[in-house]
Specification:
Elements (H helix, E strand, L loop, with lengths): L12 E7 L4 H15 L7 E7 L11 E2 H9 L3 H17 L9 E2 L3 H12 L3 H14 L7 H10 L4 H8 L5 H14 L6 E4 L3 E4 L4 H12 L9
Parallel strand pairs: 1-2
Antiparallel strand pairs: 1-5, 3-4, 5-6
Helix pairs in contact: 1-9, 4-5, 6-7
Length: about 230
């Protein structure tokens, strides 16, 4: 589906990341992708954009435990859920990332609407990453509109505008369109990363894996000239 063409040196590269808040692999994958980019001396040429992809559009608005949400969506037992969570926690800790087992789960549609606004203002990655980091650390309630407004303010956005969006239905069509486009491009889950509309990567890759994907699009890490 994607044409394999190396981009000219110095050209701007858009990296689209279809993601959802409560996905542990999205959390880990986002940090790995950022690490891969930061390893390159030309890191400033990469423009990451968060795209909306609800994993469970039918999830309830009222927050519930991860255990209850997991069993309702996928079945299994409480023991199985705890095993899965602890495995994810170990992976996150291996990446020096916090991972609370006491998180709650709920519908993420409203958050995605706020992310759409943040993206329009050039702060989509910062806003989404701060919300997700706080969520997995267990220090932030992403389902509270006042909290999202505060995070927005912290990354240079208009918190009042975020509150207005969350109290309306703005950006709803954009959230649905993002998910539909992701599915059309081949996403069966998240994270789903598309680089320059030329290379696609499903699932959370290792840092080295993302590094190879960057090379597919822009070539090897440039050797800085020594004067």
């Amino acid at each position: 589906m994607f044409e394999q063409v190396t981009q000219p040196e110095g050209s701007q590269i858009v990296i689209e990341v279809w993601s959802d808040l409560g996905c542990p692999w999205c959390y880990v994958g986002q940090h790995r992708l950022q690490a891969a980019i930061e390893q390159r001396p030309d890191s400033d040429r990469f423009d990451i954009r968060i795209r909306s992809f609800e994993l469970n559009p039918s999830a309830p608005q009222e927050p519930e435990t991860i255990e209850k949400a997991f069993i309702r969506a996928k079945g299994g037992s409480a023991i199985h859920v705890l095993q899965v969570e602890r495995q994810a926690q170990a992976i996150a800790h291996g990446e020096d990332l916090e991972f609370s087992l006491d998180r709650l789960s709920a519908n993420t549609f409203d958050l995605h609407r706020a992310v759409q606004y943040a993206g329009d203002q050039g702060r989509g990655v910062e806003f989404f990453s701060d919300v997700q980091d706080g969520y997995f650390a267990g220090t932030l309630n992403p389902y509270d509109s006042d909290t999202l407004a505060d995070v927005a303010e912290s990354v240079g956005l208009d918190g009042q505008r975020v509150s207005e969006i969350l109290a309306s239905n703005e950006y709803a069509d954009r959230v649905r369109a993002d998910r539909a486009e992701g599915l059309e491009l081949g996403a069966t889950g998240v994270p789903f990363v598309v680089l320059d509309r030329r290379v696609a990567a499903p699932g959370a890759q290792k840092v080295a894996g993302y590094g190879l994907l960057l090379e597919q699009v822009v070539g090897p890490v440039p050797i800085e000239r020594v004067s």
